[in-house]
Design a protein that fits this description.
By secondary structure, this protein is an alpha/beta fold. Helix content is 30%, strand content 27%. It folds into two domains: 67 residues, Ribosomal Protein L25, Chain P (Beta Barrel), CATH 2.40.240; 160 residues, 3-Layer(aba) Sandwich (Alpha/beta knot), CATH 3.40.1280.10. The protein binds S-adenosylmethionine. The site of S-adenosylmethionine (SAM) has 18 residues, from α7.
């Protein structure tokens, strides 16, 4: 069943006009017709069954019929990732959405080769991935900030899993096995060039940081993000029963 993320409130009988991109997708790409069913979600009201009520030149209208699933969000898990090249960044965002990250927070470090990101494009990728993966919210893509700024504004109570390729960190599953359940976490992945010695010392000194190794090989940033998110979900997240 086609799932669409929409900004509107959802209530029985609500008539909603889809945006041009979604209208084109339904009418031209998926060749849907009036009366066909779709699923809608907005990140607040759960998932609703809806029917296409009109297919106009410019917009498709849908009518919300009944709730299909109540609103639920996954664990409070951020992915904090240093800016990497566009293609790899887009892969990281798509996989972070599938793997249940609540937010993807972009960070600039000494060795990032960019200080900007196409946040709008990344948000569209996150939305498409959320629609495909069946989640009821879309991960927020947070504008890039400098590493020191991120640390200065760190939210009390959130733990930081510092994926440190230096090689002497504790293996990730061991590092996570001793942690309490239900705490908010963030996973930090560095840039292609890794963290500088200064940054590593800064991060390791943070009381809320847990350095972790992802094994003996140096992983590309996207592989590292996927691995760390998967292992965190299996150890502390919603991959457990
Ligand atoms: N420093 C490496 C180098 O110069 O070739 C590259 C860093 S790697 C491409 C990008 C990020 O992925 C690292 O900063 C780290 O956060 C994570 N990462 C990669 N391999 C890792 C490993 N074996 N253990 C822990 N983290 C790793």
């Amino acid at each position: 069943m086609i799932r669409l993320f929409i900004p509107h409130d959802l209530a029985p009988g609500a008539e909603l006009a889809l945006d041009p991109g979604q209208s084109r997708y339904l009418a031209a790409v998926m060749r849907q017709a009036v009366g066909d069913e779709v699923l809608l979600f907005n990140g607040r009201d759960g998932e609703w069954r809806a029917k296409i009520s009109a297919i106009g030149k410019r917009a498709v209208a849908v009518r919300a019929e009944a709730p299909a699933r109540p609103q639920a969000t996954g664990p409070d898990l951020d992915l904090v990732v240093a800016l990497v090249k566009r293609g790899r960044m887009e892969t990281i965002v798509e996989k972070a959405a599938e793997l249940g990250a609540r937010r993807v927070r972009l960070v600039v470090t000494e060795r990032t080769n960019a200080d900007r990101a196409r946040v709008e494009r990344l948000s569209a990728i996150a939305t498409e991935a959320a629609e495909q993966t069946g989640r009821l919210d879309v991960p927020q893509i947070v504008e890039p900030v400098k590493l020191e700024q991120m640390i200065a504004g760190w939210e009390a109570g959130r733990r930081l899993l510092f994926c440190d390729e230096a090689g002497d960190a504790e293996p990730i599953l061991q590092a996570l096995s001793s942690q309490a359940d239900g705490e908010p976490w963030a996973i930090l992945i560095g840039p292609e060039g890794g963290f500088s010695p200064r940054e590593r010392a800064l991060l390791r000194a943070l009381p809320y940081a847990t350095p972790a190794s992802l094994g003996p090989r140096i992983l590309r940033a996207d592989t590292a993000a996927i691995s760390a998110l998967s292992l965190w979900q299996a150890a502390l997240g919603d991959w457990r029963p």
